[in-house]
Amino acid sequence: MRFDEAYSGKVFIMSRPTFEESKAVIYGMPMDWTVSFRPGSRFGPNRIREASIGLEEYSPYMDKHMEEVAYFDAGDMPLPFGNPQRSIEEIYSYVKRLLEQEKFPLGLGGEHLVSWPIFQAMYEKYPDLKIIHIDAHADLREEYEGEKLSHSTPIRKACELIGPENVYSFGIRSGMREEFQYAKDSGMYMARYEVAKPLAEVLPSLAGQSVYVTTDIDVLDPAFAPGTGTAEAGGISSKELLEAIQLIANSDINVVGADLVEVAPNYDPTEQTTIAASKFVREMLLGWVK
């Protein structure tokens, strides 16, 4: 798939007309082949784009206008329906090519398994890679009912790839007992229930490091984001996630890429989930793309 051609569908608000003049590239990964509860996250990327039409182009959080960041919306990847292995290979190759052209990749999911091939491509380019993981779920399973390619496994795979001491999870409030025990024994960092406060404490230790940020929309309480496949009560507010994005933007870490996953719009007729997601994407672009 070529990502340097104009996308004929809906694009995120104020996307640049050409790939060449962009610093960041938004791309969609419409995949929900391995979800364990409710499918539908493959429709997330396009609905986030649609919701962006209602955004203001100025962010009072970052005190920046979207015209100040050059980004290109490359549209959704044409992933092979129902084939997780081939889809993973396609995503890996796609992100690898983006990195070769010095672009900041900002992916829209899709289920959380889509982050796994991104981790692989990022680690090849940035051997000092750290991962900030914001989520309701630990995602530390080795497999789900015998399937190793599952949306419940990407953070375990990340730990095995870059070392658990380089993985930092926030907002976690759901998982198997074995997952929480693995986090405790392995040396990875896991903050339960909260995001902003523990993140503020950790960020100084990551100064100067290359950091990839993966965010699952279900870190939000279902009151703020009902449109997701595996909603978990007891989550954070939209305000706290915005605060976390701002904390990262104002830190001394080097954010090298990011994704926002698990938006499943069909479960939210009010569209508050996609509206919130589009705002988070705006803040990531303005705060994290240097």
Automatic annotation (TrEMBL):
EC number: 3.5.3.11
GO biological process terms held by the UniProt record: putrescine biosynthetic process from arginine, via agmatine; spermidine biosynthetic process
Cofactor details (free text): Binds 2 manganese ions per subunit.
Record CDD domains: Agmatinase-like_2
GO molecular function: agmatinase activity; metal ion binding
Annotated pathway: Amine and polyamine biosynthesis; putrescine biosynthesis via agmatine pathway; putrescine from agmatine: step 1/1
Keywords: Hydrolase, Manganese, Metal-binding, Polyamine biosynthesis, Putrescine biosynthesis, Spermidine biosynthesis
Pfam family, one: Arginase
Gene3D superfamilies xrefs: Ureohydrolase domain
Binding site for Mn(2+): H112, D135, H137, D139, D216, D218
Bilayer-crossing regions: none
Reported cofactor(s): Mn(2+)
InterPro entries in alphabetical order: Agmatinase-rel (IPR005925), Ureohydrolase (IPR006035), Ureohydrolase_dom_sf (IPR023696)
Known catalytic reactions: agmatine + H2O = urea + putrescine
Keyword Cell inner membrane assigned: no
UniProt keyword annotation of RNA-binding present: no
Superkingdom classification of source: Bacteria
Task of the protein: Catalyzes the formation of putrescine from agmatine.
Family the UniProt entry places it in: Belongs to the arginase family. Agmatinase subfamily.
Protein name: Agmatinase
Source species: Paraliobacillus ryukyuensis
